[in-house]
């Protein structure tokens, strides 16, 4: 697994202490000698870290006294307010627009702020590859039949154990293995809706969910969402009273793109609310393992007493990008999902299922997750600091508590579709806000990906973005 250099790691650890308020303006940092002893690094590493922090305006050198935390020149950027999507139900026409934007982020030479994927260097692909090779060598021919949906028995048992560790009692018999979370979401939508039905979604929402809903001939009603607290339960209840909603599709932990999370107590309220209206909840939970704090967030599935929560997740974000292994815990709809899986893609690749089951048993998954969370947490601090330094006054951003995305609201009048085109000319991709809305709203918002190693080139790319944004501000005549 590739990692940041030791001086970058030390710098980001120190930046986090400053960000968390443990180190305050005027506090003296450890001397070079003390820092060497504390962190078991060389003097050169400590000096490089301090130079980096000094360049970012976080610390300052005082002659014959050492390094001190600087008084911040400006306030931390405010967070965006609750979203207010316009209008009522919407028939979708977004796929061509989204594909056009996504095509632009495939170029490996482009800085991937617009990507939906973290760096593959952060995952144990070598160890997974060895597990896959062993699974292929020792494959029992009967597995080609026994591992048809619902999927490999040991893999489903391992997934059920992870549910149990998070307070959800899910039987392996309720789990259907899928070819990634997107297949799982498609199967869930097919299981609980018919063409023309109305689905409640967060606003903004992940563009691939919009595409799936469009493909199935469904309509959406967009529900206001807070960048920290998640979907508005009051607005959702109003919508349930007024409209014949047949399903609710939500990302309740570190939602993509706005990054908000429902508290565990409000997840329970959401499940109870939907149960009163007998509306199924499709819980898209692919980022739940990527929390930054000490406590893992709960699944809404843990509150399910009526079989109405269809919980969807995968290993693509947390362990095995490209392996396309996801699953659904389908509640009362499990049998229907299993049959839909059989009639659409038949089965998910058997050796890959076996390899992941073996890794989950013996591969050190939790150790990997701890490293991955720490890396994302440090890279989030680095990107937030860079945005605060380089983006213009009037910028707002939501500080995530997990995942690897940052939702940024730019000053009114900045067009992020124009920003997308101008940034690409400079070799930088972004994800403009309109791709996350059924009505192409959020024209002055963007999503940034911090799931790639932080480097001087990354910092420079944020600075370039800030310059382009400045050129688009209306008062400058653009």
Write the layout of secondary structure elements.
Layout: H1 6-19, H2 32-39, H3 43-55, E1 59-62, E2 66-69, E3 90-91, H4 95-103, E4 111-112, H5 125-137, H6 143-146, H7 153-165, E5 175-178, H8 180-192, E6 198-203, H9 207-215, E7 219-226, E8 230-231, H10 233-242, E9 245-250, H11 264-276, E10 281-284, E11 309-314, E12 326-329, H12 334-344, H13 350-362, H14 365-390, E13 396-398, E14 405-409, H15 416-425, E15 428-429, E16 431-432, E17 445-449, H16 456-472
Parallel strand pairs: 4-15, 6-7, 6-9, 9-10, 10-11
Antiparallel strand pairs: 1-2, 3-7, 5-12, 7-8, 11-12, 13-14, 14-17, 16-17
Helix pairs in contact: 1-3, 1-14, 2-3, 5-13, 7-13, 8-9, 8-12, 14-16, 15-16
């Amino acid at each position: 697994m590739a990692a940041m250099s030791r001086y970058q790691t030390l710098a980001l650890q120190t930046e986090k202490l400053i960000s968390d308020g443990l180190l305050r303006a005027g506090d003296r940092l450890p001397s070079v000698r003390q820092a060497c002893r504390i962190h078991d690094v060389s003097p050169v590493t400590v000096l490089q870290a301090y130079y980096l922090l000094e360049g970012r305006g976080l610390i300052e050198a005082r002659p014959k006294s050492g390094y001190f935390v600087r008084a911040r020149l400006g306030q931390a950027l405010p967070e965006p307010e609750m979203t207010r999507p316009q209008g009522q139900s919407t028939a979708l026409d977004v796929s061509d627009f989204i594909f056009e934007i996504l095509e632009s982020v495939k170029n490996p030479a482009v800085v991937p702020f617009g990507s939906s994927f973290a760096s593959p260097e952060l995952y144990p692909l070598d160890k997974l590859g060895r597990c896959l090779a062993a699974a292929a060598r020792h494959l029992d021919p009967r597995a080609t039949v026994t591992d048809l949906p619902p999927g490999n028995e040991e893999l489903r048992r391992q997934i059920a154990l992870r549910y149990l560790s998070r307070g959800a009692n899910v039987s392996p018999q309720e789990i259907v293995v899928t070819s990634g979370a997107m297949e799982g979401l498609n199967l869930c939508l097919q299981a609980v809706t018919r063409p023309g039905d109305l689905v409640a979604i967060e606003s903004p929402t992940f563009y691939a969910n919009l595409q799936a809903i469009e493909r199935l001939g469904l309509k959406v009603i967009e529900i206001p969402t807070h960048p920290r607290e998640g979907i508005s339960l009051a607005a959702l209840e109003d919508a349930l009273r007024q409209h014949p909603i047949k399903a609710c599709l939500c990302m309740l932990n570190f939602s993509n793109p706005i990054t908000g999370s429902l508290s565990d107590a409000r997840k329970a309220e959401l499940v109870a609310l939907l149960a009163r209206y007998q509306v199924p909840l499709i819980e898209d939970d692919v980022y739940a393992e990527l929390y930054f704090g000490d406590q893992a967030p709960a699944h809404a599935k843990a509150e399910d007493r009526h079989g109405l929560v269809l919980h969807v997740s995968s290993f693509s974000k947390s362990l095995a990008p490209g392996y396309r292994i996801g699953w659904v815990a389908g509640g009362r709809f499990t049998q229907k999902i299993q049959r839909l899986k059989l009639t659409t893609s038949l089965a998910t690749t058997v050796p890959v299922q076996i390899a992941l089951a073996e890794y989950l048993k013996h591969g050190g998954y939790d150790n990997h997750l701890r490293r991955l969370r720490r890396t994302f947490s440090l890279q989030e601090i680095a990107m937030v600091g860079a945005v605060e330094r380089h983006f213009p006054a009037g910028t707002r951003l939501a500080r995530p508590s997990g995942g690897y995305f940052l939702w940024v609201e730019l000053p009114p009048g900045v067009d992020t579709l124009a920003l997308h085109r101008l940034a690409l000319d400079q070799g930088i991709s972004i994800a403009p806000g309109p791709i996350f809305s059924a009505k192409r709203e959020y024209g002055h918002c963007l999503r940034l990906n911090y799931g790639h190693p932080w480097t001087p080139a990354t910092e420079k790319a944020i600075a370039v973005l800030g310059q382009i944004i400045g050129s688009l501000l209306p008062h400058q005549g653009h």
